[in-house]
Amino acid sequence: MRMQPEIAAIPEMWHEKGAIIDLLNQRSGNVYAFATGGATEQFNDADILYRSDKWEHIASDLVPFSAGRAINWAALRRKSDGYSLIASGTHPLCCRGDYVITEAVDFVTKTLSQVQYQHPYPIVLMGDLNTGYYQPSQQLLRQGHVDAFGRHWQIPMTFTDAWAELHPGNPDPSTINDDPVRLDYVYFQKTPISVGQSIVQSQIWPRAAGSDHRAVSGDVVLNRTACYFLKQLRCKLSPGVHQEQRCTALQLLLATAESSVPMLRGSGRGLTELPSCAEKPNFHLARASWCGEQKEPVACAKDSDGPNPVWDCHLQADGFCSLGGSPCAWPTGAPAREVSATQSQSQNNNGAGNPTRFVTWNLYVFTLAGRIHPVVDELMRMQPEIAAIPEMWHEKGAIIDLLNQRSGNVYAFATGGATEQFNDADILYRSDKWEHIASDLVPFSAGRAINWAALRRKSDGYSLIASGTHPLCCRGDYVITEAVDFVTKTLSQVQYQHPYPIVLMGDLNTGYFQPSQQLLRQGHVDAFGRHWQIPMTFTDAWAELHPGNPDPSTINDDPVRLDYVYFQKTPISVGQSIVQSQIWPRAAGSDHRAVSGDVVLNR
Asked: Domain 341-600 has what CATH class?
């Protein structure tokens, strides 16, 4: 009540939220609300609070990232004049160094960029970012790029730090206890859409109410011209000379905006005026991989050396290009990729005594919404009977719908557990061949989870447990070994209820020779100062058939393998007649190669 925020981000608030909003509204006269989108009480995030008497809620959601953290966002429209913005808040993991925060900034800004394509309004980013002003992560937010931690980082937007803008001589004051560092920020978007750079005040408030943090505020005059993407501003003005001049000026603003973030919608160019996609230097890659069997008239070409070279495919003439894309006309009659009839026939003949194909494929969540068609093309090419699919969130419905259109309605996802709330590996299966018995999801550390599904083959009653997981990346093998310990003990409990052999698949984010993978193959390992032992062992499908090359790259061109199909060996054997294992070419815009294992399932 003392600070009187109009919009705020509130980290570290869990089940107290209801009591806070009730008392706040008793005191204020019922003028506040929290944005309700997403499972905000299940993640360490930063809930969006707003004055509901002044702002109308358009949409909101929560997107998890590593370590149980998340980014909250809410699209809000001011009731007095229709000005709209995206208020966002986050709270990355504390006390692990700035690399973790830089990864979070990279994820958060790319996520907000996708949100901004759906809700084209400027962004305010707030939160406890758990790092200081001078750190690379914060330079990345202000500059849009930074060289740090042995690589170049680039994000699709830049921001102005409200406090530092008005206090350039003291940009890093303490906001926690009396520690000599700032952790809390209010950022106003600068490019490609400006919130409005008339920042009139920013304050670091005294510590109060028992918190170890000081609140940070930023007061800004929200420029209406910053809302040039708003559809309702597009010259819907009453007749008159003055209004026509304003409309012309607005159209110039729109043209400027659309040239900085190229779009088809509102671009003023018809299909006949667009350059041919075939003239673009990496058209062959788009046709062979990203765009697949495109029949739609438009795609968005990207530079091969850009931060995101994956084309936007299968667009209609009123679609958007994502950042860095420019529209082009897809050539009529361009040869499309074909699914091998031999592969399809061999898989359709599957049954008892014939091999069953298991596949794991990390789809790479960024830009996935624009790659549904090529992803489905590639799944049709691989013809999995059972698969684990990491890095797929809200795109799951679109993927299964299109996959069933193409396949004749033969696929399903196992439905057990809150699969869209964790970084996991959804279980896909041929529902014409397998019956779903039970399935669930069990979370473990860092917002990750193990998916499992007990399935029964319709032809002969053979049953198994298909499982998938995706442990935390880039923290060393100790984290993966802990995950393997948890996952196998969890699967042992599942196996007690459903006494069938296990197939374990996923992006395990570690190499073949690491202790965690030795643990899966041997059942025990001495590593990290202790002895580890798990209740089962597995055979690595690829390594079993390629003992001279067990650790080939499955991500980009990095010299390491991350993706695995494991068949249980003890105490229950899946069946050791592994007849084929393949590492598939990178396709459909993913940074990972799919891995498959074909096994004859012994009854």
From this structure: alpha beta
